[in-house]
Structures are given as structure tokens and as C-alpha cells.
Amino acid sequence: MAKVEIAALRPWDDFFPGSERFAKPDIHDLPKWNNRVVSNLLYYQTNYLALAVMVFLIVGFMNPISMFTGAAVVASLFLGSVWAGENKAVIKSFKKDNPTLFVFLVMVASYLIMSLFGGVMIFLLGIKLPLLLIFAHASLRLRNMKNKLENRMEGAGLKKTPMGILLEALGQQEENICKIQDFLESKLKE
């Protein structure tokens, strides 16, 4: 097993170039759209982390108690869902069969529990605004050759990154790993 590496911070002109490197995703081809999002999440993960921290800090300074409460609820539910997904057979099979629905249900549960404590809007602004910005960028940004190469290395097990581990825990990378392994095996046979 490869040790965990932190991905490089991509330069601004690679992360946010002109409009020629952005395109609307094909909403009728969900696997292709999912592949684009996962690839960009893996490639730009350090840039996304920096963006999320900046937004989180700005909102957190405006209302720190609500941000802390919201973050504690979401972190607890996320860790609980990952544990249940690994240790409970029913949840594990549901997560494998419906990875996107699983993540959506965790998000809905966190919202419902957080609404009991108040401060929902502050948390939504501080936590989910960066997530929305990251998802929008990952959906619209076209992949380049470096992006595809980095993702193949991650999928083949040559490299492990924090985002790769997170996506794997959420069940979002299993199909891509199989596709990459099939691709590599076919190239080795040639």
C-alpha cells in the first residue's frame, strides 16, 4: 500500500484559466459527469482545501459558535456513517449500490440534527458554500493531460492522497478504480 501524499497546490492559471477550459457537463451522461467531478476533486484537492478554509474562516469569524456547533454535528455524522458503512452489512451494501444517495442522506441527516441546535444558516453558508463552489468548479472544469495522469496513478495504487481516501470512504471511486485497472491490464496485454 502506498503512503499518503499531499497533492501539489496547482497554479492559479491551471486552476482557474480562461473560459476555454470550462464547459457545461452533459447531464444526460451521469457516469461521464461523475468521472469529471471525481477526477477534478483528486487533481485540484489542495486548491479546493485552500478555498474551503478561506470561506470557512470568513464565515467563522462572523459567527464562531454556530460554526463550531455545525461543524461538530457534521463531523460526527460523517464519522458515524463511515464507521457504519464499514461495520454494518446492510449499510455497506446500500453505500456500494447507491453511493450518491448515501452521501445525500448523510447531508440531510446532518441538516436535520443541526436544525435542533440552531445556527443552521450560518453553518450552511460556512460549510456548504465552499462545497457548492468546489462542486461547481469540479463539474465545469475540463480535465487536462496532467489531471488524467495523476488520476491514473491514484487509481492504480501508485499514489494515495487525502481526497482519494475520502472519496473511497464515500464509495465514489470504486467504479473508476475498476475502469483504470481494466485500462492498465489491456495496455499491458498489448
| Order of helical and strand elements | HHHHHHHHHH
- Sketch the major β-sheet: none
Number of domain units: 1
Distance between the termini: 26 Å
- What is Rg? 18 Å
Structural class: mainly alpha
* Mean pLDDT metric: 76
**Helix proportion of residues, in percent?**
over 70%
Low-confidence stretches are: none
**What is the molecular shape?**
globular
State the helix count.
10
- In terms of DSSP E residues, the strand content is under 5%
Query: In total, how many beta strands?
Result: 0
Describe it.
- This protein has 190 residues and is mainly α.
- The chain has one domain.
- 76% of the residues lie in helices and 0% in strands.
- The protein has ten helices and no strands.
- The protein has helices spanning 12-15, 30-43, 45-62, 64-87, 89-97, 99-117, 120-140, 145-155, 162-169, 174-189.
- Helix 4 (64-87) packs across helix 7 (120-140).
- The radius of gyration is 18 Å and the shape is globular.
- The model has no long low-confidence stretch (mean pLDDT 76).
- It is a multi-pass membrane protein.
- The chain crosses the membrane at residues 41-59, 65-85, 97-114.
- It comes from Electrophorus voltai.
- It is found in: Cell membrane; Cytoplasm, Cytoskeleton; Endoplasmic reticulum membrane; Membrane.
